[in-house]
Amino acid sequence: MSHALTAAERQELKTLLLARRDELQAQMTQNRANLAPAENTAGSVSQDESGRLANQTREVDAALTTLDADELARIKRALERMADDTYGQCDECGCPIPFERLKAEPMTRHCVACKSRFEQAQRARG
Fold first, then answer.
1. Which fold would CATH assign to domain 7-125?
2. Consecutive 10-residue averages of pLDDT for the chain (126 residues)
3. Cβ atoms 110, 2 nearer than 8 A
4. pTM value > 0.85
């Protein structure tokens, strides 16, 4: 049977979330820096091989920035749940989410059983 998180477990998870947030913010800063030349030289990039490669790199950086922003928003919501003392409770059934699951996926909002049911329902819909 699962139990509510201890203060030490909550602190460990908060540390993980904050470290990941800092890492993502640094990545996003770098990705934005990589995108900056594209904004300044739009239309002037030659279509030779190096130009195409540069465009592809910028597209990847833009996609990564979007993914990072989504993950950053999930981290923010997890930290907000910590602040209002709902972190570590399954949004679906209300049961405590085991520490090991939260440690592996600190932004999760569902216990394994509810997540499995959700994924099965999605697969059944096609």
1. Four Helix Bundle (Hemerythrin (Met), subunit A) (1.20.120)
2. 85 98 91 66 57 71 79 96 96 96 97 95 91
3. no
4. no
